[in-house]
Amino acid sequence: MEDIEDLLVGNGAGVPPGFRLPVSTAVGVNPKQRKKNGVTKLTVVQDSPAPKIPGTQTIYIKTFGCSHNQSDSEYMAGQLSAFGYALSDNPDEADLWMINTCTVKSPSQSAMDTIISKGRSAKKPLVVAGCVPQGSRNLKELEGVSIVGVQQIDRVVEVVEETLKGHEVRLLTRKTLPALDLPKVRKNKFVEILPINVGCLGACTYCKTKHARGHLGSYTVDSLVGRVKNVIADGVREIWLSSEDTGAYGRDIGVNLPILLNAIVAELPLNGSTMLRIGMTNPPYILEHLKEIADVLCHPCVYSFLHVPVQSGSDSILSAMNREYTVGEFRKVVDTLMELVPGMQIATDIICGFPGETDEDFAQTVDLIKDYKLAQVHISQFYPRPGTPAARMKKVPSNVVKQRSRELTAVFESFTPYTGVEGKVERIWITDIASDGIHLVGHTKGYIQVLVIGPESMMGSSAMVKITSVGRWSVFGEVIEILCQNNEDVPSHRSFDERCSPCALSEEACACSKEQEPCSATSDCCNQSPTREATTLLKNDPNQDDHSSRNLIGWFLRNRKNQSSKKMDLTSSESKEKQIQDLSHRSAWSLVDIALLSGILLSLFTIVALFLKLGSRSSSSK
């Protein structure tokens, strides 16, 4: 199958990102030659039946993998929606399925195989995007389906249109990055996932992602700052910086991560309504910038949280992985950030059973996890990925790998990261609804997941909450005060050095103030929204009875809100008191309610007076 680039007229030169070429010239159909009785015959492939008008069909999008993949799906959805296509979460009602894939682990690729098989059985046209086709374009499972590469997401409309016409197309080769200002449909309207670069500088022996995302390619500081300004104006409340390695940002264009972070922070609203979350970074590329990054993490509009994967507690295994750092350097990163950033929380990753891992190597990993007792550790078994050096190494027996994974998981789950948090008052930023459909989900500055009861109108706001109880994966809070619901043209941080001067974000001291008391809270899952684990917690929580009445009230408040068009104005102290009263399960009359009732009573009084007057006239005339 030819790359669509070879079939485009003029190779698409001069075509701006996101521009749709005329479909008549987008893809050519080549005639096929057949031999019969030794005679070659030329057979022209008949055109498929005329499809519906382009842009009128329904598209189902399924996404696997990291936040970068999620951002790519949101960009593709935005372009399809802009050209008229409907988006649906129901695969059965869709005219085409788009599958955005992940190649990090075998299970995610197996899930891709399953959904492709289901799509074929349902006779759905298929488009496969993401890291799997980009890194392994000749997979048997990809035969007969269209492909769009990771750097070709701005051409998704072309691929979809041609696929709906019955053509198999592939769009993979690209030397420039997709534009950041493409249309986008966010999965969560309050969260912008902002890719700052693609690819990486590493060469880990187990990693397949490098085959797909390639070498490091960074967006310019100006383009990223421009995007930040636009999404803040759109009402976004969290900006997630995402890439395969955030710490490596800018090394290909002569800048670095601290330069970018300072430029972005300068655009964040002074009232703290929009928060920044820095994405995953490997230890080698932040060692030289630890002090600068610590300064940024101290900023009141930046979550005091960082994901730094270590993968193993053994230097010999790290060497076999070609991770380019030692356990000691990982410890330096963690120790420095925890010392310089009050309430700093670190998440990390561990691979159990990497080829050559001995019992002693694994014991060193367990000791490392015990030393820090991090609230978030992502533990996975080693999966050999085809085409990687590690796939050719001698494997650890699968039963040993599984046993080590279970043992380390048991150690991690024995930690009680939220001990001492109950009773504290924290500021949280609310951006989601828990899977139980009752609680709203917020995060503290240390990115602890806090579940609270409240109406959906609180989404996108920040609030002061009192932690009422704790579980293993989340904590529960009670709303005390709503701090800010809208940006309302709040000025941004003009200078990073002024970040502490307002210090009016809440009653607590600035996170970077020298007088700041260290926070004893620990962080919860950064990449996972509150969900099955949180729901299980609700079922098994010893304080469940204490929450049951609040859950019922929360359900009632949410349904009351859905049946009413009332909007809560939280800009005055009176309305804040009203919000707290609503959360305390009391009702109150608003000014609008009183005005409406007065109008109704006045109308009734007028009607009665008219009837009496008419009655008196009729009696006098007699």
What features would you describe in this structure?
There is one protein chain. The protein has 622 residues and is of the alpha/beta class. The protein has 17 helices and 21 strands. The longest helix has 31 residues, at 591-621. The strands form 6 sheets. Strands 4-3-5-6-7-8 form a 6-stranded parallel β-sheet, with helices on both faces. The chain has helices spanning 23-26, 67-82, 106-121, 131-135, 156-164, 209-213, 221-233, 257-265, 290-297, 315-321, 327-340, 359-372, 398-413, 532-540, 544-563, 573-583, 591-621, and strands at residues 32-36, 39-43, 58-63, 86-88, 96-101, 126-130, 146-148, 170-171, 191-195, 197-198, 217-218, 238-242, 275-277, 305-307, 345-352, 376-381, 425-433, 439-443, 449-453, 462-470, 475-484. The protein is globular, with a radius of gyration of 29 Å. It is an enzyme of class 2 (transferase). Residues 419-481 form the TRAM domain. Its EC number is 2.8.4.5. Catalyzes the methylthiolation of N6-threonylcarbamoyladenosine (t(6)A), leading to the formation of 2-methylthio-N6-threonylcarbamoyladenosine (ms(2)t(6)A) at position 37 in tRNAs that read codons beginning with adenine.
Give the SSE layout.
Blueprint: H1 23-26, E1 32-36, E2 39-43, E3 58-63, H2 67-82, E4 86-88, E5 96-101, H3 106-121, E6 126-130, H4 131-135, E7 146-148, H5 156-164, E8 170-171, E9 191-195, E10 197-198, H6 209-213, E11 217-218, H7 221-233, E12 238-242, H8 257-265, E13 275-277, H9 290-297, E14 305-307, H10 315-321, H11 327-340, E15 345-352, H12 359-372, E16 376-381, H13 398-413, E17 425-433, E18 439-443, E19 449-453, E20 462-470, E21 475-484, H14 532-540, H15 544-563, H16 573-583, H17 591-621
Parallel strand pairs: 3-4, 3-5, 5-6, 6-7, 7-8, 9-12, 12-13, 14-15, 15-16, 19-21
Antiparallel strand pairs: 1-2, 10-11, 17-18, 17-20, 18-19, 20-21
